Structure to design on (255 residues):
């Protein structure tokens, strides 16, 4: 038999092998998708079970969060923190509007200031007061602290920066009489905050739902969360209170 007589048989086999490869690739793709969906649902169930251990839930918002319905927000959350100021010059564009609308909802309200290493304590205190007036809510004022640029643990000036932070905390606590909580990640809390403010209430940034000591009052478990309202996706940070209902009552009604 000549060579050309083998061609049809070879071609049929090649096509069969090609179909099997395609079928195998399809099955593998469906298996990967199925495992992904199963894994996502399993993780969500696990996350929900962990969240159920924390009775008090809340969110942090700023001008990037868009227009929020605070009545709807209050159905599943007990508190909201609203960004007010940063450093000595920046004010959140939506602070006053968000604060005013939050007052009509059954939800505890707190305000946030972001600490600046590059501006003085007095200027930051003045700017905060000028921006918020008496609109400070009822929760402890949150001061967010994070390293940036040359301001980190290797900077020789950090001891002086720590005293600056302490001055701001003391001034706000004395002026508004509602306490202060420091928001920072574990590294910043350990290296920078605790040496100058050892008894300060803390808010663990970028934390995980788990066991934390008593100084940690709040745990942010999702800094880049999405909240769905009226068909819109709103950018918020998700946080839980690290304690019981009774402890929350004491924390949220500080004098």
């Amino acid at each position: 038999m000549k060579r050309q007589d083998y061609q049809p048989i070879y071609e049929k086999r090649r096509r069969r092998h090609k179909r099997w490869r395609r079928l195998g690739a399809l099955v593998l793709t469906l298996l990967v998708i199925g495992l992904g969906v199963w894994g996502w649902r399993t993780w969500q169930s696990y996350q929900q079970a962990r969240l159920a251990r924390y009775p008090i839930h809340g969110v942090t918002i700023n001008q990037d969060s868009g227009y929020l319905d605070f009545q709807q927000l209050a159905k599943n959350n007990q508190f909201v923190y609203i960004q007010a100021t940063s450093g000595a010059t920046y004010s959140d564009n939506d602070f006053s509007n968000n604060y005013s609308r939050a007052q009509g909802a059954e939800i505890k309200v707190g305000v946030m200031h972001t600490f600046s290493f590059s501006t003085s304590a007095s200027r930051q205190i003045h700017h905060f007061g000028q921006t918020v007036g008496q609109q400070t809510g009822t929760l402890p004022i949150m001061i967010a602290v994070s390293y940036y640029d040359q301001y980190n643990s290797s900077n020789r000036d950090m001891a002086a920066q720590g005293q600056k932070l302490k001055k701001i905390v003391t001034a706000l606590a004395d002026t508004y009489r509602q306490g202060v909580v420091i928001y920072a990640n574990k590294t910043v809390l350990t290296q920078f905050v605790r040496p100058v403010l050892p008894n300060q209430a803390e808010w663990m940034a970028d934390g995980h739902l788990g066991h934390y000591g008593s100084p940690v009052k709040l745990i942010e478990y999702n800094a880049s969360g999405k909240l769905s309202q009226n068909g819109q996706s709103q950018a918020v940070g998700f946080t839980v209170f690290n304690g019981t209902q009774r402890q929350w009552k004491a924390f949220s009604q500080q004098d």
